[in-house]
Design a protein that fits this description.
By secondary structure, the protein is an alpha/beta fold. The protein has helices at residues 23-31, 40-49, 64-76, 97-105, 118-126, 143-152, 169-180, 204-212, 239-251, 254-265, 269-283, and strands spanning 8-11, 34-37, 56-58, 81-84, 110-113, 133-138, 159-164, 185-190, 198-203, 222-226. The chain folds into three domains: 7-116, Tetrapyrrole methylase, N-terminal domain (Cobalt-precorrin-4 Transmethylase, domain 1); 119-226, Methyltransferase, Cobalt-precorrin-4 Transmethylase, Domain 2, CATH 3.30.950.10; 239-283. The protein binds S-adenosylmethionine (SAM). The site of S-adenosylmethionine has 24 residues, from helix 5, strand 7, strand 8 and strand 10.
């Protein structure tokens, strides 16, 4: 065994198409003493495809706490470890944070081997502003928590990027329509790099309808990108209108308060709705 400490390589793997792996990733995976994989059976397919025979050990959300210190010990004894997840870049909505943190604390060199990530691939083809973006990952599974999270980012001006699973895609889009308003531009990127790759952009209401009307569009893996909020020009609502919304919201549920405020002020529903949502988010 070497007296030099080993290294930790954080290696991106494909998000569908097995060819989306770098030469360097193959070289590193072939050369390490251990590949820490989220699901060893799943990754066996990729390793087999490239003739990589390095031994694997499982590192997933349920055993990471216990496994990470063991792997760090091995690296301190001179072994090198590569961390991979089922798809894309480890630690992006995937396990590995404990291991990377512990390795960093132990002074072990941590080397990124960059490659695919669904969020970045989706953004690169979305046509939405990409100079500043906000990765939100998975929304909470429960409807109330999901709406709360969406409400918290209603005023975010950067492009928002979400991951979603097929069994929640319709609920997720419906909640986005409620929270962001149906007019907000959005893009759905489904099954990227795979056979049924689809990238479809529209406003949220139309996008929701399009997905709801076609069961095929509800299958697979999804990235949803939502245009950031337009800057509120000194607030579209003047002080009197803001006061009206605030007062109504103290007495009525959101929908009723918004609808009455629109009648009283004669202002645009969306502006009033967004303001009411921002008040609600602050109150929660
Ligand atoms: N680490 C991965 C990455 O770098 O993108 C993400 C892992 S996360 C557990 C899995 C989620 O990523 C899926 O539910 C989906 O939202 C998104 N995703 C992964 N592969 C995808 C693909 N080929 N097309 C669209 N979305 C994908």
């Amino acid at each position: 065994m070497s007296s030099e400490p080993g290294k930790l390589f954080v290696v991106a793997t494909p998000i569908g198409n097995l060819k989306d792996i770098t030469e360097r990733a193959i070289e590193v995976l072939s050369g390490v003493d251990c590949i820490a994989a989220e699901d060893t059976r799943h990754s066996a397919r990729l390793l087999e495809h490239y003739g990589i025979t390095s031994p694997m050990s499982a590192l997933h959300e349920h055993n990471e706490q216990a496994q990470a210190p063991r792997l760090v010990e091995r690296m301190q004894l001179g072994e090198s470890v590569a961390l991979i997840s089922d798809a894309g870049t480890p630690l992006v909505s995937d396990p590995g944070l404990n291991l990377v943190r512990l390795a960093r604390q132990a002074g072990i060199s941590i080397i990124p081997i960059p490659g695919a990530s669904a969020a970045i691939a989706a953004m690169s083809v979305s046509g939405l502003p990409s100079d500043r973006f906000c990765f939100e990952g998975f929304l909470p599974a429960k409807a109330s928590a999901r709406r709360k999270r969406l409400t918290e980012v209603v005023e975010e001006s950067r492009t928002l990027i979400f991951y979603e699973a097929p069994h929640r895609i319709l609920d997720c889009l419906a909640d986005m329509v409620v929270c962001f308003g149906g007019e907000r531009p959005a893009v759905m990127a489904r099954e990227l790099t795979k056979r049924f790759e689809t990238v479809h952009g529209d406003n949220l209401a139309a996008l929701q309808e399009w997905v709801a009307s076609d069961p095929n569009q509800q299958k697979g893996e999804f990235v949803i990108l939502v245009h950031g909020a337009e800057p509120q020009s000194g607030h579209e609502l003047d002080e009197a209108a803001r006061h009206t919304v605030e007062t109504l919201l103290q007495e009525l549920p959101l929908k009723q308060a918004v609808s009455l405020a629109v009648k009283i002020t004669g202002l645009k529903k969306n502006a009033i709705y967004q303001y009411a949502l921002s008040l609600q988010a602050k109150a929660d």
